[in-house]
Each structure stands twice: as structure tokens, then as C-alpha cells.
Amino acid sequence: MSEYEIWMYKDQTGFALTPSFLPSITMSAPAKSNTPTVPSAVESKDWTKATTPELQSGSEDEASVLDAKTKERRRRKQVKKEEKQRREEAERRAREEAEARAQEDAERAKAEAERKARKEAEQRKAVEEAAKQRAVEVAAKQKTSAQEALKKRAREEPEAGPVGEAR
Description:
The chain has one helix at 47-156, and strands at 8-9, 16-17.
């Protein structure tokens, strides 16, 4: 047999032994007993009363562990809640700032459009005034030309006498 085929354990200690080590082991190990030790005169003979404090201390440990876990869970939940509130507050502030910037931009654009419209209206008015001035000047020149033409014609034409007479 090879040493991998048979494994033996020494009395629940967890040591693995191969058949080659068997001759060196003596069987003088003390026997382990699963029976409880005899209670002393001070201790109660009722094993439930004797073990109750141990059970209670264990349950207290479990309760304290559960309390600690519950407290930790609540703390994490509170931290998450606070972080969510901070994130929502930051988002709300960012949204409000964006709205304020958009409002300012809209007001600025409106003021710019009004300024541009006023400037264009002033330019149109100036052009119209210039056109009217030019029309007045042209009309004055035409009137002056017409009067000069009448005067010139009057000088060139012989004075007309009574109707019917010829010259």
C-alpha cells in the first residue's frame, strides 16, 4: 500500500498519520470523555443552573453583536440618507444657478435686441430725414429753375400787345 491510500487520524486532533508512522505512536494518550466534570461542592449540582450564566453571557454577546450590527446598519442608512440629501441639495442649487444664468442671458439678449432695434430705428429716421431734406432741396431747385425759365422766356418773347395786332 502506498502512504496516500490509507490515512488515519489520531483521536480527533486533526493530525494525519500514514501507516509508516504507526509503529512509533504509543497508545498511552489519555482518553477523552464527553461527560461533564463532577461539580464541586460550591457549584450547583443542577447542570442547567450551572450553564445558564454561560448561556446568558453568550446570548448577551449575541444581543450586543446584534445591537452593534443594527446600530451600524442604522448609521450607514443615515449616512446614505444625508449623502442623498446633500446630493439633492447640490443638484437643486446647480439647477437654480442654471435657471438664474439662463434668465440673465435672456434679459441681456432682450436688452441687446431692444438696443439694436432703437439703433436701426434711429438710422431709418436719419435716412428718412435725409431723403426729405433732399426732396426739399430738389423741389427748391426745380422751383428756382422754373422761375428762371419763365423769366428767360419772358425776356426772349416780345411783349405781346393787344390781341389781334401783329408785329
